[in-house]
Specification:
Largest sheet: none
Number of domains: 1
Organism: Mucilaginibacter gossypiicola
CATH architecture: Orthogonal Bundle
Protein name: Helix-turn-helix domain-containing protein
Helix content: 55-70%
Strand content: under 5%
Distance between the termini: 11 Å
Number of strands: 0
InterPro entries: Cro/C1-type_HTH (IPR001387), Lambda_DNA-bd_dom_sf (IPR010982)
Shape: globular
Structural class: mainly alpha
GO molecular function, one term: DNA binding
Order of helices and strands: HHHHH
């Protein structure tokens, strides 16, 4: 199976931004809820610049108060 990692990162990035905006959180606020100094890491993830470890996806879901599957709800 050949996975298009760049497409997966873009789809995840769209979901993350969408859920964050639905929750009316800024990138900075979400970053702080995740234990980061600010939202710079959130910004990078929302632009699809990095692969996220499963532990980071769980951390984001917890901070957003959603099930992790909401962030991973896309077709590959």
């Amino acid at each position: 199976m050949d996975l298009d990692i760049e497409n997966i990162k873009k789809e995840f990035a769209k979901n993350l931004a969408s859920v964050r905006k639905k929750k009316k959180l800024t990138q900075d606020t979400l970053g702080i809820k995740c234990g980061f100094a600010d939202g710079s890491q959130i910004s990078q993830w929302e632009r699809g610049l990095y692969d996220l470890q499963l532990s980071r996806i769980i951390l984001l879901a917890k901070a957003l108060e959603v099930d992790p599957k909401e962030l991973l709800n896309f077709t590959i």
